[in-house]
Specification:
Two copies of one chain form a homodimer.
Chain A (H helix, E strand, L loop, with lengths): L7 H8 L3 H9 L6 H14 L6 H8 L4 E6 L3 H5 L2 H16 L3 E5 L7 H4 L4 E5 L6 H8 L4 E4 L8 E4 L1 H12 L6 E6 L8 E2 L12 H15 L9 E4 L4 H12 L7 E4 L2 H13 L9 E3 L5 H5 L6 E3 L2 H14 L4 E4 L2 E3 L6
Parallel strand pairs in A: 1-2, 1-3, 3-4, 4-5, 5-12, 6-8, 6-9, 9-10
Antiparallel strand pairs in A: 7-8, 11-13
The first copy, chain A, binds a DNA duplex (16 and 16 nucleotides) through helix 2 and helix 4.
DNA sequence: CTGTTAGCGCTTTCAG
DNA sequence: CTGAAAGCGCTAACAG
């Protein structure tokens, strides 16, 4: 406790060798005889020197073994989202294998400047709520890997959201269906509402719009029309918003026969509310989700949804960052045919 | 990109002032006139200098604004646990307010040496799986706050687990009941099993044993005896283990009338399986949980459990670390009377 | 209010 | 294989 912190220099002096030798003993085994090295390491342990100071190493070497995971939103929000936490799981397991550490960074932070100088790179999960971060990341000289969105010239990990949405919708829709869509962040509104003619946001970049494109393409194929009054916007994939939207949808008249939901959380909330109101699923209303979270599998009836492996995404993103291959990875997805569609 | 990184020294030269002035402009506004300061900041922005290099600041100042959150187990495991992720939520929101960053650190890591030199302190959530970390933390000169366990002379945040378990069990138990307990990490076994006469682990330190003490005290008060054959050990609060234990309990004969579970995850799994098997809850079997997670509230029948605010724990732990008051905080809990006990 | 300077603790040429 | 010395980029004490 009160023990003054030993420096490499102190140790060199005490052991009567040069600082380089101590440094090499810890960092470059090839630079000295095995015997000498072990002797030094043993001595160090004895006098209580646990190795070179990491802060100094970071400055000197320019690497820290810390990877920042930039989440789309606040950490508080992301960490309780099952999809995001599964992704984090993947990232952390891959980083651990490489001896890297994980710094969680909120996407609503004002800047990455706080950490850019010492982290080894960024994994960016979803377009950050604060769009300015994207610009900073694009300019940063540190490696960046994006997931579920893209930054020009940066490696990325994605699935084909448009195609996935197309497939699940194609499976659920039939001619003559009255269809509703529960979407995510489609317009700029802090609350649940139908999109009507409001200007759409991030049309080019957001996965929500890719999914919407897929749904609409499927509808077109099936000769189903979906008006803007039948498309809901939810500000977040959160239960409270999902509940509001579910209630609106289920109490609207005529009630939709099919509801395409952009996340499983939304779909599950809708499913529960439908059952509570005595509405039969899928007989009276069919429901599809998106993501393939565990809870969707546990639900009865089982949710029909798009399964993507968030763990795999995390692993691939971490490895891409470390190996710096510069790839734009597109991962497969799978339609899980549950019992909320027949 | 190809732009050579500017240093403070470069900038000072370019602007024709001393390095101290630039440094002060960024760090100590009181050390120079507001006009000069703004002028310098503006110039810096223009030439693309975004402020002093953080890695150098960390070495020089000895602080980084990074707090390590040492989780009990691997990050992968902890991040998908609802109780832990709620705790993380609390920590991250409190740290954010203070402009601190969050480094996630796995409790099964071999050492804290990797980061101890540059983080500002440690929040340790649950006794780490690798017990050696406790020793390192105890000796570390960096501030440490423990949660759900204690290290001598270090501040901590806890609830009274013994009393909480006592109260919930007292509420559930009646004389003559046949009782089972689904416990966590009571003995040293990697799989679900009854504890029988196996040696108990961490008897002094673990919250599981505090809870067990509370259950047994309540049983004694109610003149109920609970033998070691009726106490199950689960290695983790994970659904798969919970399922195994639930099956064993529900198919054992005579079937218990009351099952006291050391986490809501376990209790919920038991509840679901009971319902699936057509066993009436609470008529044929009463169930209590522990923690008060959201899902327990959504379940039908609603789970009777001990509610503790993990968010609050996280906030208090973070603030304790920052303010360094050296307190040993004991937070309140609350028995939530759901419908799994009557 | 400004400038000079000595390190923070380490790594890594380079010469021996 | 070892040792001396030059910084990595910055801060803060001190002198002006």
């Amino acid at each position: 406790m009160t023990k003054a912190k030993l420096t490499l220099k102190d140790v060199a002096e005490q052991l009567g060798v040069s600082t380089a030798t101590i440094s090499n003993a810890f960092n470059r085994p090839d630079q000295l005889s095995q015997r000498k090295r072990e002797e030094i390491l043993a001595q160090c342990k004895k006098i209580g020197y646990s190795g070179p100071n990491k802060a100094a190493q970071i400055l000197r070497k320019g690497t820290s073994n810390i990877v920042a995971l930039v989440l789309a939103d606040s950490i508080s929000y992301m960490v309780s989202d099952p999809v995001a936490s599964t992704f984090i799981k993947g990232v952390s397991s891959a980083l651990k294998k490489q001896g890297k550490h994980l710094l969680l960074y909120a996407g609503d932070s004002s800047s990455i400047l706080d950490v850019v100088d010492f982290v080894d790179g960024f994994i960016c999960y979803g377009a950050p709520r604060n769009a300015a971060l994207v610009g900073e990341l694009a300019l940063s000289s540190k490696p960046v890997v994006t997931v579920d969105f893209d930054i020009e010239n940066k490696p990325s990990v994605n699935i084909d959201n448009e195609e996935a949405a197309f497939e699940v919708a194609s499976y659920a829709l039939n001619e003559g269906d009255n269809v509703a869509i529960l979407g995510l962040r489609l317009i700029n509104s802090p609350s649940t509402c139908r999109i009507y003619d409001n200007p759409l946001i991030d049309v080019e970049s957001s996965i929500s719009h890719r999914r919407l494109d897929g749904y609409l393409r499927a509808a077109e194929h099936k000769d189903v029309t979906i008006s803007n009054e039948q498309i809901w916007h939810l500000p977040e994939s959160e239960r409270s918003f999902a509940k509001q939207a579910a209630r609106e949808v289920l109490t609207s008249s005529p009630r939709p026969d099919v509801v395409l939901c952009m996340s499983d959380i939304i779909a599950l909330e809708l499913l529960h509310m439908a059952l509570e109101l005595g509405i039969k699923v899928p007989e009276e209303i069919k429901i599809t989700g998106f993501d393939g979270i565990e809870e969707a599998e546990r639900a009865r009836p089982r949710l029909t949804t798009v399964c993507q492996s968030s763990t795999e995404k995390g692993i691939r993103a971490a490895n891409e960052l470390i190996e710096q291959l510069g790839e734009n990875i597109v991962l497969p997805f799978e339609i899980r045919k549950g019992e909320t569609v027949y």
